[in-house]
Amino acid sequence: xxxxxxxxxxxxxxxxxxxxxxxxxxxxxxxxxxxxxxxxxxxxxxxxxxxxxxxxxxxxxxxxxxxxxxxxxxxxxxxxxxxxxxxxxxxxxxxxxxxxxxxxxxxxxxxxxxxxxxxxxxxxxxxxxxxxxxxxxxxxxxxxxxxxxxxxxxxxxxxxxxxxxxxxxxxxxxxxxxxxxxxxxxxxxxxxxxxxxxxxxxxxxxxxxx
Amino acid sequence: xxxxxxxxxxxxxxxxxxxxxxxxxxxxxxxxxxxxxxxxxxxxxxxxxxxxxxxxxxxxxxxxxxxxxxxxxxxxxxxxxxxxxxxxxxxxxxxxxxxxxxxxxxxxxxxxxxxxxxxxxxxxxxx
Lengths: 210, 127
Fold this sequence. Notes:
Chain A has 210 residues and is an all-alpha fold. Chain A contains 7 helices and no strands. Chain A has helices spanning 7-14, 30-55, 65-68, 71-96, 100-130, 139-172, 176-209. In chain A, helix 2 runs parallel beside helix 7, helix 5 (100-130) packs antiparallel against helix 6 and helix 6 packs antiparallel against helix 7 (176-209). Chain B folds into 2 domains: 18-74; 77-117. Chain B is flat.
């Protein structure tokens, strides 16, 4: 250090920080890094929302949102995702208490809600395609399937990750590394719910208002 | 006073900002209300104009996103020394530029390039 400190100043300073830098524990910056990944994912969705916003009026004479969307189905779907968010929260709370059984139970419940969400979404897609309203029908439908499908793909990978983590926790317990992984998936899962708020508001609800 | 207490090997900065049962419950209840009202506004018989409903549901969506950020993602201005908030604000600026810019440019392109839109009936007869 190049500073000349009086002994009082030096004594006062030692109260506030250590002379040596702490050791950074393994994975100490994982969550920030994962958060930055989520921000980049946020940009992907921003671009898809912008695309949808630009193309959402181009029906090419094909079906319009009012003829296609079933809001009660979307309401059920939204409920599934919201419930899966709170049950993931319960899994996190159980993991803080170091209860492996409770953590696993809540992860299973979260996975089931996620799977229910996906099944309803796939049913909706299949129904639309069956009616001739597939992604190739109009620019509106291409943008719709890209945006909603990308979100659904994220949920799919979230479920794969969730199952992987359940196996990890089953094998190794709630170790520090597994706690960190659970925290990352928590961010991912809740982030998908935030994106879904945008989807049901701008795509489905605003679509019905048109 | 920011004196660190290193109690043992498990101490030190925790792996993540912890949520509590209270946080999750408040967040969930708020989300239920903030989701149910927009659905009811669109599905129920509400005598407001479409434009009013659209603005109100966009407002609800914005509030619900903040609720999720605070109660589910446990964001505070201090988490990770403020870097989560900094990166979020930066991302939001990019999101606003992307969305507003695309819609603005494409709207004007559309209205300047297309003399008129064929009506639904005309377009259908072309199929």
